[in-house]
Amino acid sequence: MSIAVDGNKQRRLTGRAVLLWLIGFFGLIFAVNFAFVYFSISTFPGLEVESSYQAGQDFEKEVALGREQTERAWKVDASVKPAGTDAAVSISFVDKAGAPISGLAVSVQLIHAVDPTHDHTAKLSETAPGVYTASLEDVPDGSWVLNIEADKDGQRLFKSRNQLDYKRS
């Protein structure tokens, strides 16, 4: 087989040329795939829990705690508002009768959707009956997960996980 290169000259397509084209084509495909795998693994570890086995063992306990939390029927309002470069977290707890719930040990985790180095953790202080607040430093705009836990006398009474889009402006 011959291929015309510039109208007058013809060049033969040899087995060697076909082999080089195939090696080049598949080499490029492998190089791009290798780059995709490398960057996906190095930028996001994908680790959600340390031990899947332990998480499975704790599942029934979590279900029971969730049922107890539902039976309490607390009303919990949380807000995360900008305060300069920081974020002001405020959470109020009210029981089913409408009375504020005091004396809780409340903690929050603000987990960045992509980069775990941006995560924040804080223990909140009770500033008014049933109202707990804290300030988180240097919180950039973005998509976050807000985890809230409230304990009393070492027993977890409330836990929630919420999606949050945070913008300072």
Concise synopsis of the structure shown:
The protein has a seven-stranded antiparallel sheet with strand order 3-4-7-6-5-8-9. The protein has helices at residues 15-43, 52-57, 59-72; strands at residues 2-4, 10-12, 75-83, 86-94, 105-112, 120-128, 131-136, 142-152, 155-166.
Structural features, described:
The chain is an alpha+beta fold and 169 residues long. The protein has two domains: 32 residues; 115 residues, Immunoglobulin-like, CATH 2.60.40. It is 29% helix and 41% strand. It contains three helices and nine strands. Strands 3-4-7-6-5-8-9 form a seven-stranded antiparallel beta sheet. A two-stranded antiparallel ribbon has the order 1-2. A hairpin with a 2-residue loop joins strand 6 and strand 7.
Write the layout of secondary structure elements.
Layout: E1 2-4, E2 10-12, H1 15-43, H2 52-57, H3 59-72, E3 75-83, E4 86-94, E5 105-112, E6 120-128, E7 131-136, E8 142-152, E9 155-166
Antiparallel strand pairs: 1-2, 3-4, 4-7, 5-6, 5-8, 6-7, 8-9
Radius of gyration: 28 Å
How far the N terminus sits from the C terminus, by CA atoms, comes to 67 Å
Please count the helical segments: 3
User: Tally of extended strands?
Assistant: 9
Please report which band the strand proportion falls in: under 5%, 5-15%, 15-25%, 25-35%, 35-45% or over 45%. 35-45%
- CATH fold group of the largest domain: Immunoglobulin-like
Largest beta sheet, briefly? Answer: 7 strands, antiparallel
**Overall domain count:** 2
Under the CATH scheme, the architecture of the largest domain is Sandwich
Q: Quickly name the level 1 CATH class of the largest domain.
A: Mainly Beta
The largest beta-sheet arranges its strands as 3-4-7-6-5-8-9
Low-confidence stretches: none
Q: Structural class, from secondary structure content?
A: alpha+beta
- The best one-word shape is elongated
User: Secondary-structure element sequence?
Assistant: EEHHHEEEEEEE
Helix content: 25-40%
Average pLDDT level? 89
